[in-house]
Amino acid sequence: MSDVDALVGAALAAARGSDVRQAERQLDRLVVDDPAAVDAALFGRLVRAVGRLWPRGWQPVDVARIVTRRAGVRPGRLLADVLAADRRDHGNVPAWWDEQLRGLDAAVWWDDDAGHLAGWAARERLDRVTALREVVEVLAVLESLPPVAVLRPPPGAAAPAPAGPSGSRMLDRVRALLAKAESTSYPAEAEALTGKAQELMARHSIDQALLAAGPADQPGGVRLGTDAPYAGAKALLVQEVAAANRCESVWSDDLGFTTVLGFPADLEAVEVLYTSLLVQATSAMLRGRAERRRASSRRTREYDESFLNAFALRIGERLRAATERTSREAARAEGGDRLLPVLATRSDAVRQRVETLFPGVTRGRLTIRDAEGWTSGTAAADRATLAPGGRPARPVRGSGRRSGPSR
Fold this sequence. Notes:
- By secondary structure, this protein is mainly alpha-helical.
- The protein folds into two domains: 3-142, no CATH class; 169-406, no CATH class.
- Helix content is 64%, strand content 6%.
- It has helices spanning 3-16, 20-32, 35-53, 60-71, 73-88, 95-103, 116-124, 128-142, 169-183, 187-212, 231-243, 264-295, 301-334, 336-357, 371-383; strands at 220-225, 248-252, 257-262, 366-367, 397-398, 405-406.
- A hairpin with a 4-residue loop joins strand 2 and strand 3 (257-262).
- Helix 3 runs parallel beside helix 8 (128-142).
- The longest helix has 34 residues, at 301-334.
- The protein is globular, with a radius of gyration of 24 Å.
- Residues 160-167 and 387-407 have low confidence and may be disordered.
- This is DUF2786 domain-containing protein.
- Residues 235-345 form the DUF7168 domain.
- It holds the Pfam family DUF7168.
- Residues 169-208 form the DUF2786 domain.
């Protein structure tokens, strides 16, 4: 090990500890050493750190989310550069990998890796001490991440897994319809727009189930961010949307995401619906909070949390009702003897996938602390626009708990 590598290791070890003064002393040693050598060593270690995460189940968007969550937005931009450098070192990668990198704006803009950190600090207008501190912080996050479920084979693996957005024109139409439904101030227009989105997604999911049915058709997975504030309420909303779309969800509250397992068309529906309904729920909550403040000076956190939990559970009921109607209509059109066994087989495959990847999940109990928030959230869910789902909702699965209402 070179002297510079030893300095980097010492700075990283100190950053992980609780002695702030020792961490600053080790950082000072990096500052006064040869800048080019230090920068090259740090950047190389960053790239190697992300590369070790891919066989451990992490994907680019997952890493970017948790680095931003734990270190901040600016370190998140540094991480995007590291991901771009890692991508440059690979040959062919799955299409979804490059799609994630594009979504993160991960692109190589520098000429030489040895000069990257100096260039990044200049772009961010940082002094050298602050820049090095943030680099070490990102390294500390990357090297502390535990293994997670492998949802898709990483670059270099033998075969891609069927999961994630298809980029189909149908899905583009659904997103456009839901975006209009979120923005319109006319309830009738929102209902019409979302009703069309519901029809498209429901039919697409059933068509894909019939086309892809067979022994080679296996469930995949996606991870959706469920960060603070109100992470539990967000995880509950994912659960309700997922269960209504023949998917299962597992909440990793310590890592800030929920894993959704299912088949591609159903995963698409969950992603689009969750995003749209979270926007609607948040907007309705903020309106209710403002009205409450005019009438009372009480604290709002318990109101907000109760509102979002009630919204999620009521939306789940509406989604299940819509799904049951759509499934009955499809069974009449396609023939129940053909469609229903396919759907049952897929549901069994998803459950088996959950049991394989998450054998130790536990249940938690949902506690409602504000009756007014619960009532308002339920009413907002009744007004919300939605698209179709699947079978009855189950309690959230998570690393620490599942949820169920308790008043």
